[in-house]
Structures are given as structure tokens and as C-alpha cells.
Amino acid sequence: MMARSSTSLIVTLLIVSFASQALAGFMGGASTFATAGSALVAKWNKAKPGFSQDVVAYDSVGSGAGITGFNGGTYLIAISDDPMTTTQEGGVPAGGKITVPLCVSTFSFFYNGKPGVVLTAPQTYAIFSGTTTAWSGIPGAAGKVVGTITRVARSDKSGSSAIVKTMWSKAVSGYGDGTDGTSMTYAGLTKVEGTSAVCAAVLGTKGAIGYAFTGGCTAVANKRVVASLKNANGVAVSPPKWVPGAALTGSPPAADGSWNTVDFIWKAGAKTPPMVSMEYGFIRKSLTGVTGGKIAKAFMQYMIGALKNGGYGFNAVPAGWRNPSVTMVNAIAA
């Protein structure tokens, strides 16, 4: 598995008094988590369970900066669609962190055309690396999507890019571009920042193709076309017929240990999507004496409960993967 550092949405956790004096402290999540994050923040702000003087505000930045801030002591929580890398784990604050798998996400290629295109992993690599430049080079695309292929990729350091590139590293013979596991570095790409921007760019350009969290393009969900993608079994799968949970085999690492080898991409299974990940929450193992620590712990517990059965385009995390982390979060001293 190639090293991955994902791009995330940072959700700023502001501790606000009645005098509106904000104390430092942030929570963050991947851009794939934007819809869920906004909704959960809005619900928390309305209820403020047990924290009548506290408000959670939402701010969007990249996960690389979020994890750096978490490790530097600026942020209390970060959320990512990849585990921390070995390098990132080396910078975690004294006392350690807890990794919480919040929900299961799948990723797709989608294009501006008519339904029915089936792609293979090597074909998607040929498209994004610039080897295949026209839809006429894709068998079965005739009559569904035509013309020159416009390739839409993330401009920021992105978990989506890391996931796509990890799939290529496993499924494509001769794959290149492993020097930067979080960015697309091929020439001639149309680059935009954030899941919604990728979706909008594809929708606005005939013949365009992009990649994103399958459930993250709410603004264009009824107009975008998701390509069926052949999985590790050679079976063409597309939502809603796939079964992402089939990829979640094995047991989780210790909640306060290293998760950098956790990988659900390109797993066997007739209905298993090729690109499966989780949304991971990172929180300090101890928040004693930390400004905003009590609300950080409470909000993490709130998210865990709200996402227990999935939602917002995500699937639920199996209890065997989730519960050890939940127990450790509940035990945080704050």
C-alpha cells in the first residue's frame, strides 16, 4: 500500500461564551465529509447538549493542514478519509491520539454523458495519465459519451486522489506517479479544490470525467453519471448494488496505536467496490487541562452516535471496528 496523506475538511470547533469570546480549538474532517459535517454542526448548534454557552462553527480547509495543526497543538480534533501516515503519527502530541472510524465511504468515477459506461482500473489510469485522450478510445463508450476527455482532478492534497492512486498501484501493471501519494501530478489536468468543485466541473463540461466520494456530490446528484467500475473480481459494480462492508475484513488496530496499514481498496468480492475507505476522527487520548477539551470529547461522542447507522451518503462502520475506539473515547479525561 502506498503512503497516503489525505485531504480533509477542517471543521473549526470554536468555544464561544455569551460574550462571543472564542477560545482556541478546532475539529476537522475530510472534504468528503462536508455535507455530514455541516448537518451535524447545525444540529449540535441547535441543541448544544450540555454546553449552553458553547457553539461549534464550521470552517473548510485541507486535511494535511488539519493533521499538522492537530499534531502542533492548534486543533483538538481532525477528520480524514485516510489514517495518519507513519510520518504524521510521529508528530502526534504527547500522550497520544485515538483513531475513531466514524463511517464507511466509497469513491467513484463519474462523467458528463449518458449512463452505461463501464470502465476498468487500467482504463481510468490511461485516462488520467493522458494516454487515452478521447472517449473513442474507451470500448463501449460510443453513443454514451463522445469527444475529447476533460480530466478533472483535485488541486489540493486530497484523500480522494490518494485513494484512486492506491487502487492504481494495486490494479494497474506499470503504474507510475507514486512519488506523491496525495496529488495527481500528470500534465494537462483540470484541477479544482474540493469534492463539490470536482462535481460541478464535470457537470459543466461535456465529456469530462472526475473522481470523488460517491455520496458527496449532492448538488449534482441527479445529473451526474457514475461509471460502473470493474472490481478485483472483474465484476462491474456501481451504486447502489455494491456492498462496501464486504471490504471490511479483519480486525482493527489498537485505537491508540498505528493505523497506517489499514486499507480497504481493491478487495475481493463479487459486489465489493474497488475504492472503499473510512472517515477517521482523531482526538487526543488525554484532554485534561486543555481549553475546549470537554466540548471536543462531547462532540466526538455526538458524531459517533449520529453516524452509528451511517447516513449522509456514508455506510455504517461494523461494530467490531468501531466499538474499541468508542470505549477509549468515553474514557478520555477532559
Structure overview:
This protein has helices at 34-47, 63-72, 86-89, 121-128, 159-171, 195-203, 293-306, 319-330, and strands spanning 8-9, 15-16, 22-23, 29-30, 77-80, 97-111, 118-119, 150-154, 190-192, 208-213, 225-226, 228-230, 236-237, 276-284. The protein is an alpha+beta fold and 334 residues long. Strand 2 and strand 3 form a beta hairpin. Residues 3-24 have low confidence and may be disordered.
Straight-line distance between termini: 36 Å
Low-confidence segments, given as residue ranges, are: 3-24
Number of strands: 14
Tertiary shape: elongated
User: What fraction of the residues are assigned to beta strands by DSSP?
Assistant: 15-25%
Radius of gyration: 20 Å
Provide the helix percentage.
Answer: 25-40%
Order of helices and strands: EEEEHHEHEEHEHEHEEEEEHH
Instruction: Please state the oligomeric state of the protein chains shown.
Output: single chain
Q: Could you report the average pLDDT, rounded to the nearest whole number?
A: 85
- Global structural class: alpha+beta
In DSSP terms (H or I, runs of 4 or more residues), the helix count works out at 8
Please describe the biggest sheet, giving its number of strands, its sense, and whether it closes into a barrel. 7 strands, mixed
